[in-house]
Amino acid sequence: MTLHADGYTFLLSDDVTRTPVRYKNRYGIEIAADLYRSKGLDESTGHPAIVIGPPHGGVKEQGPGVYAHELAQRGFVAIGFDPSYNGESTGEPRHVTSPELFAEDFSAGVDFLGTVPYVDRERIGAIGICGSGGFALNAAQVDTRIRAVATSAMYDISGLHRHGWQGSQTDEDRQKALGDLAVQRWKDVDAGEPELSPVFPDEIPADGLDPVTSEFFEYYVTERGHHPRSIGGFTVTSAMSHINFGAVGHLEDIAPRPILLITGDQAHSRYFSDAIHEQAPGPKDLVVVPGARHIDLYDRTDLIPFDRLETFFAESLARA
Asked: Contact 78/112 with Cβ under 8 angstroms?
């Protein structure tokens, strides 16, 4: 894939209509999103709809658009959005990451879809890709209008901040992180603006990259998935809200609404999906895609199990 003339990392089918839309979340931030639907969609009746969030650091022109575009061809109305403070959505300072706001952005997408005349308000689901997987689950925990939730290549960003990679962070590590963040707050005060965490480099440094960073480099920096508004960096002090918010913690509140977890057998992030599948008490299913790495579930339409997603949402969002 490459960035096409229309600014997207994939080509739009002649059978699909993509319409830029804007709406506000409950914090007054204007969310930029794209509405996808098939050109032959019958507008005289209500249809199932899905709100789709991007990988942490991604934008709607990447993974969310790939998913929404495919699902629109399968009869769903779908939106892919830019999270608050990122992409073309509003909010200052830029590049904040917030578990509360990013979960709210899913609910704001439900709000918007509920105003579309040909969407059935009782048949709205959500998909979270990578970091949005955790945010989608958080949203579904408190927003019962989300009738079904799927994650793909899930990351629990807040859990990662609080517990470290695969739970490796000790209490001492966390206290040091909090001390460093306190120092950073003063640095931001004195500078008059927040400092960003490192952004994606333009080229691989001389000392190379670790395997996980190398994989993200392959998607975000090369022509495969590069987009100028997807820079990879966030305000450093955003970590405070993730640590305070904690990991996905109320999965029981999603039941009896169903959860579908998609991961790859080669995905470095697989343990996140495995953990949620083990912890969630309600209807749940785990799909492990053979040969798929983490980033392959962003855009590899030959690997993403769209047939399974279609079946999951068709059954979960069926008319009562």
From this structure: no
